[in-house]
């Protein structure tokens, strides 16, 4: 009897890590530092919550089914702001709203791949992408990253086969935090187009990119939608994690296929969340700029305090957006080290083994720190605890 695909897919890493907390107590003078999950823990700002309360009371449509591809006003707003920020033409018909960015990825893969097809993903990878490929019967082809955890299009070209259907990139990257240079993304775009495959670019963390201006020029190509599929999340920008609102920007033909997937899974995106995202896009520009500055301050704190770990043999492999990706100096796998840190240091983070295939080395020496929910003083406290370890 064959096993289901879920049975042969690894458990959700964040849920597994939470189980390491069972039975462990943390004294008041050393509370747990949870740097395991890349999501804000605070609710949306008060003004947005007030607007949402009014929507709940005054907008009957917020409680009913809506269009499968999303609220027309939100699709139009995304198109308008993307056209302005990326310097290319994006129309509302090229935007679909999804129930979170994970669903945007799942829907895109469903339209691209059949049984046994292949998708190239740089490693370390975002584990939910790998999980969905496994559950879809799609082979993950690991692309080893180079200096600064940046993938190279020439290396990817060597991995393309007749079964390759897409290359999937995340920038700013999860788990490494690094921002892919515009030239890197352009090279991957040209590679994908030359081979007639899709380039998926997950820009969940675009609002926290340290660079000013557009991070790439892909939308300036008049025919961008013959190759590019961009994914986005409103969760990180507006703290709407529980409302599950994401987006996919692609060709009208691609979205017609995605509509089939969405209609059979959620029927329509969360109506209240969509209206909140629209309100946020139209009213929280300055607030979001402040959120970005705070994240950039925490990124700076990582660099400022990392000498505490560097002196002990640690290495900073990547840093940006919500993440720092590090190499530890201990003579044990990160899969064993990470649960031990809960007890020995009061720190919950994820091991690099959760972001790497078993047959690709490196993850056993690596750890991901998600610093979105610790401030600069918390960063210093974290590094003090890690530096004091003697294992």
- Fourth-tier CATH superfamily name of the largest domain: Type I PLP-dependent aspartate aminotransferase-like (Major domain)
CATH fold-level label of the largest domain: Aspartate Aminotransferase, domain 2
Q: Can you tell me the overall shape? A: globular
Alpha-beta content class? alpha/beta
Largest sheet: 7 strands, mixed
Portion of residues within helices: 25-40%
What is the structure about, briefly put?
This protein is an alpha/beta fold. The protein has two domains: 13-43 and 287-387, Aspartate Aminotransferase, domain 1; 61-283, 3-Layer(aba) Sandwich (Aspartate Aminotransferase, domain 2), CATH 3.40.640.
Task: Set out the fold topology.
Blueprint: H1 13-18, E1 33-34, H2 46-58, H3 72-86, E2 95-98, H4 101-112, E3 118-123, H5 127-135, E4 139-144, H6 153-157, E5 164-170, H7 182-195, E6 198-202, E7 228-233, H8 235-238, E8 246-249, H9 252-265, H10 271-283, H11 285-305, H12 307-310, E9 315-320, E10 323-327, H13 334-345, E11 347-348, E12 350-351, E13 366-370, H14 376-387
Helix pairs in contact: 2-10, 3-10, 4-5, 4-9, 11-14
Description:
This protein is an alpha/beta fold and 391 residues long. It has 2 domains: 13-43 and 287-387, Alpha-Beta Complex (Aspartate Aminotransferase, domain 1), CATH 3.90.1150; 61-283, Type I PLP-dependent aspartate aminotransferase-like (Major domain) (Aspartate Aminotransferase, domain 2, 3-Layer(aba) Sandwich). It is built from 14 helices and 13 strands. The strands form 3 sheets. Strands 2-8-7-6-5-3-4 form a 7-stranded mixed β-sheet, sandwiched between helices. A 4-stranded antiparallel β-sheet has the order 9-10-13-12. A hairpin with a 2-residue loop joins strand 9 and strand 10 (323-327). Helix 4 runs parallel beside helix 5 and helix 4 (101-112) crosses helix 9 (252-265). It is globular. The N and C termini lie far apart (44 Å). The model has no long low-confidence stretch (mean pLDDT 95).
